[in-house]
Amino acid sequence: MRQRIKIIGINILIFLAGYIILDLFLGLLKIPYDYNSFRIKHPYFHHGLKSNQAAMTAWGGLVYPVFTNSMSFRDSAVYRVEKDPDHRRILILGDSHTEAVGVDFKYSFCGRLQQAAGERNIEILNAAAVSYSPRIHYLKTDYLLNKKGFRTDEIWVFVDISDLQNEIAYEAFQPREEGYLYPFATKLRSFLKKRSFTWYTVGSAKDAKKISAFVDKMKAFDPRALSNLHKNTVELYYDFFRDFNDEDMLRSPEFHGVGEWYNDRGLIELADRGLELGQKNMAKLAELCRQHKIRLRLAVHPWQTQVLRQDTMDYYVRSWKDFCDSEGIDFINLFPVFINGENPFTVTETYYIPEDNHWNEAGHELVAEHLLDLLNEDKPNV
Predict the structure, then answer these.
(1) Does 341 lie in the same domain as 236?
(2) CATH assignment at residue 81
(3) 225: pLDDT strictly greater than 60
(4) Number of structural domains, the chain?
(5) What span, in angstroms and rounded, lies between the C-alpha atoms of 307 and 335?
(6) Do residues 24 and 100 both lie within one domain?
(7) pLDDT reading at 347 higher than 70
(8) pTM for the full model?
(9) Which one-letter DSSP state was computed for residue 359?
(10) Is residue 29 classed exposed, middle or buried when 0-12, 13-18 and 19+ CB atoms within 10 A define those classes?
(11) What is the Cα–Cα distance from 106 to 113, expressed in whole angstroms?
């Protein structure tokens, strides 16, 4: 009897070993390259980037390299970042514009500033990621300062009109501690997604079903635009709504046109709600910076639609300026950088990715030139 049990056990082990080998072999052959493999969900600040990554990524049809440092920030290369430096440090926060989707890091405004700052013994780090907004800026900064012992002299935060929608979507998100198993579980999931054909097949089927349902809800917004969106872009947009459960709002065509919220009387109340949430979270960030003696700057930048309207101080910009004045935050208005007397259509064609609200290399260079003088200021005494 014992011999029979032993034989059965051996056969089971042989089967499992064979299955695992076959699974990994099929994964090697069948699993396509994941252009978002360097991105990660995070329990405390919703999402971010993995540390020490060297990969290729894509924004729509634009394919470009991406590197992250030991602090999980996008950077020029993979390297170790000191948590408490002996030189002036500036931490930059923002969304996909600041992460610089579609652009090689060295040509992004952060990359250009980083190169110029190095000559002045100033370190610039880019902690931005797609779909960040004030709530995530605050949570990520709190995580870095109070849980990781990270130190910085200044924080520059970049906001735009998309934050209205993001703040509403993130309102239900509740931060959780990482837990002891978080690093191991994260690495295991990443390995299985990249190497296991079974894990990839089951996961892809589940994700495809969810994303398909999400796209169906959005079709009323702009079916033609949706049909032209690349898979990687849709997946990112879907993921940022994962804690948002208002089905009626998701099915509303107007909800997905955040760039027009302040130009539609029926949506001004929704826009004001998003702005109020954003400023409450930014006030928390300002208080956190005061506690840690960090100088805070806030920059507002325009979408293409705002450039075409030619208003350098629209309601959204003015609201943030008034907020900064009341909180003692340095305010930077980037609207005049793009609304500068030139033909607005020429400006958008020259400095933006075609049919996209994100800057191309020329747009990033323009922003970097505008911000360069800030590096010449003395180290702040807060």
Answers:
(1) yes
(2) 3.40.50.1110
(3) no
(4) 2
(5) 7
(6) no
(7) yes
(8) 0.90
(9) B
(10) exposed
(11) 9
